[in-house]
Amino acid sequence: MNMKSLYYLIKGRRSVRAYKRKSVPISILKRILNAARWAPSAHNAQPWRFIIIEDEDSKYMLAKTMAHAWLKDLMSDGIPENRAYEIIRKEAIERFTKSPVLVLVCLTMKDMDMYSDERRNNAERTMAIQSVAAAIQNLLLAAHYEGLGACWVCAPLFCSKEVSRALSLPEDFEPQAIITLGYPAEKPTAPPRKPLNEIVWVYSLSEGLKKWVV
User: Fold this and answer.
1) Which of 96, 103, 111, 128 has a CA 20 to 30 Å removed from the CA of 48?
2) What pLDDT digit, counting tens, does each position of 126-135 carry?
3) pLDDT digits over 151-173, tens only?
């Protein structure tokens, strides 16, 4: 792959939510997960763990578990019951059960450094979260390269205990995200991006902080 192809790959990736009823070969899954594990990580601790879920019963069980937790949140937000059930059906049950593969991405602090004060421990945890996010980005780009669609879903953050219990996860596995994965049945259009002059600043001692103008 040349440099132009790399930029094309990055700009062409989309969040795909509809998939064909076609299984993903284990050889492709292996390549995608290998790409994920080559992400940079703090101290090279590699604080990511991946759980692959493909069988229908397991996907449905996990979706129902998360939907039950989500329903309580929606109801507490004052959303009418009928509307809450409709949201859950579309955004939880259907999304997860109709995805050929689910990849639950977890964080573990097992190999991260531990300190005697809360400030540094909090920073260490943030470093681990950033590392896991880098692995997810690698996974998404590799999936796109392989002709697959994928979507990064952060729902497990809102019901991590329920997910951990449902899947009997080890105590140090902290659910962070679910990646839905499969051959795309849609071609989403590119969402807008903010221009560089809105998101990039330049700092110098002589002029201080100012927006980058090119």
Assistant:
1) 96
2) 999 999 999 9
3) 999 999 999 999 999 999 999 99
Closest CA to 98 of 39, 183, 214, 195: 183
**How many Cα atoms occupy the beta-carbon half-sphere of 143 within 13 Å?**
28
Residue 133 lies in a domain: yes
pTM of the model: 0.94
Domain that holds residue 96: 3-188
Q: Position of tokens 């573990």?
A: 108
Q: What is the mean pLDDT of residues 21-40?
A: 98
CATH code where residue 82 lies: 3.40.109.10
Collapsing DSSP to helix, strand or coil, 85 comes out as: helix
Which residues, other chains included, contact 172 with Cβ-Cβ below 8 Å and sequence gap of 6+? 108, 109, 110
Distance CA 72, CA 200 (A): 40
Cβ distance 85 to 67 under 8 Å?
Answer: no
Contact 174, 128 (CB under 8 A): no
195 located within any domain: no
